[in-house]
């Protein structure tokens, strides 16, 4: 007999992450998965990383000890230098905290900024893991629709005002994935970046700038300025080694003003005391040896080829008119609109056919947790192009095509037209 636990109200209201649930289905033998947002394990720098294990021999006594909650100092210093360069402002160690994944940055930000019932403004669609974290502290969501340039920042004041009139309080946070978004692949244009920060500042609402894909550009212009470089205060910048090195290291970081970093550190003290020092030291050594920048060059080429392979396969294989999308210029994802279809039903058929993707509805909060107008994501599908091998990308798109051809009005294959870039 189960012990009669009396769960907290928050625990009672928590639902399992849909991604984790769907994941189980994507693990079947022979399945080609475009579902998870995973890097390609074939490109992990296993040998270089293993060689960095020398730090265990040279500095084992401190590396194997508990570390500072703020982070392993050599890594903090490396990241401060990189962030000073990126943001064009001096970033000292008091402005930076290392986290156990950028997922933990969200958790720290949520714990120090949000009370149950508070509203987070997010673009729709957004990263399901962020919804999960904000939800777990009892937050609700006010949604700003997106177009090909990311969040419709022109609608942001209206969304903030509406949330204020419906809840009696201003939203507490704006959350945005600014470069090659998960899931939409879109990047905020430079003018929208400036406008977003101006609007948020006018209302006194801080911004969480989640930017793990910034360095993964395969086409188009150079990287856009970060929000934080435009404004400084009131912006929390977050990034991670997960996509540019390996998610297994669970090392990420946040930059913000010292008073906020201090609060986040106090919150983190109660979460995990410190991010594992062993992996921080390995990552620091990896960067110190100059591997990271070389690796970035390599993965950009590698993923550019995969993005091109998926773009070509989708165009060639999918029935004409069955899907619409813009080819991403970076990041990990294609975001397909499947006109007239419910992606969740397509997903069930796709699993039967041996190919998996992420149904778009997981990237939108449900009606009961939405303040103001909802956004319907049922017709969308997220396809990750980085994880599958090039052969599997082609075969997976063929399987998608069979699913989309079956029981639909579309019978004619490409070429061309299917992908309206
Ligand atoms: C936009 C975004 N933020 C945060 C994360 C979490 O990454 P991490 O592995 O650093 O916790 C992900 C992972 O997919 C992501 O896509």
Which cofactors or ions or other ligands sit in this model?
pyridoxal-5'-phosphate
Unreliable stretches (pLDDT < 50, length at least 5) are 411-421
What structural class do helix, strand and pairing data support? alpha/beta
Computed over alpha carbons, the radius of gyration is: 22 Å
- Mean pLDDT across all amino acids: 92
Shape: globular
Can you give a write-up of this model?
Mean pLDDT is 92; it is low at 411-421. The protein has helices spanning 9-13, 18-26, 46-51, 54-63, 73-87, 102-113, 128-136, 156-167, 190-203, 227-231, 258-269, 277-288, 291-317, 343-353, 390-405, and strands at residues 32-33, 96-99, 119-124, 140-147, 150-151, 173-177, 207-210, 235-240, 252-255, 333-337, 355-356, 358-359, 370-371, 380-384. It contains 15 helices and 14 strands. The strands form three sheets. Strands 2, 3, 4, 5, 6, 7, 8, 9 and 13 form a nine-stranded mixed β-sheet that branches. It has a three-stranded antiparallel β-sheet with strand order 10-14-12, with helices on one face. By secondary structure, the protein is of the alpha/beta class.
């Amino acid at each position: 007999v189960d012990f009669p636990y009396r769960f907290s109200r928050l625990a009672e209201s928590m639902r399992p992450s849909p991604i984790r649930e769907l994941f189980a289905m994507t693990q079947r033998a022979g399945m080609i998965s475009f579902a998870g947002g995973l890097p390609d394990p074939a490109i992990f720098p296993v040998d270089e990383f293993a060689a960095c294990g020398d730090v265990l021999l040279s500095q084992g006594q401190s590396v194997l000890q508990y570390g500072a909650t703020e982070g392993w100092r050599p890594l903090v210093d490396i990241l401060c230098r990189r962030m000073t360069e990126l943001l064009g402002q001096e970033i000292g160690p008091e402005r930076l905290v290392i986290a156990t994944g950028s997922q933990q940055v969200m958790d720290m930000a949520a714990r120090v900024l949000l009370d149950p019932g508070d509203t987070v403004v997010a673009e729709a669609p957004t990263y399901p893991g962020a919804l999960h974290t904000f939800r777990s502290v009892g937050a609700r969501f006010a949604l700003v629709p997106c177009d090909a340039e990311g969040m419709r920042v022109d609608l942001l004041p209206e969304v903030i005002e509406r949330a204020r009139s419906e809840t009696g309080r201003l939203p507490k946070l704006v959350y945005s994935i600014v470069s090659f978004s998960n899931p939409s692949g879109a990047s905020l244009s430079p003018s929208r970046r400036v406008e977003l920060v101006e609007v948020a500042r006018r209302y006194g609402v801080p911004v969480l700038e989640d930017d793990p894909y910034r360095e993964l550009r395969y086409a188009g212009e150079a990287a856009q300025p970060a929000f934080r470089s435009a404004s400084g205060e009131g912006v929390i910048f977050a990034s991670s080694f997960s996509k540019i090195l390996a998610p297994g290291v669970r090392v990420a970081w946040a930059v913000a003003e010292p008073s906020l970093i201090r609060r986040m550190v106090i919150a983190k003290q109660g979460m995990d005391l410190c991010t594992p020092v062993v992996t921080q030291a390995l990552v620091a050594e990896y960067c110190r040896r100059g591997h990271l920048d070389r690796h970035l060059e390599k993965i950009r080429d590698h993923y550019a080829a995969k993005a091109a392979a998926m773009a070509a396969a989708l165009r060639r294989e999918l029935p004409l008119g069955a899907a619409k999308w813009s080819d991403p210029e970076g990041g990990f994802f294609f975001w397909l609109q499947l006109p007239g279809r419910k992606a969740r039903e397509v997903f069930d058929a796709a699993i039967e056919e041996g190919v998996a993707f992420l149904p778009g509805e997981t990237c939108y909060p449900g009606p009961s947790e939405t303040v103001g107008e909802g956004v319907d994501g049922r017709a969308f599908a997220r396809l990750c192009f980085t994880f599958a091998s090039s052969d599997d990308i082609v075969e997976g798109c063929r399987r998608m095509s069979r699913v989309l051809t079956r029981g639909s009005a579309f019978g004619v294959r490409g070429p061309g037209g299917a992908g309206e870039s």
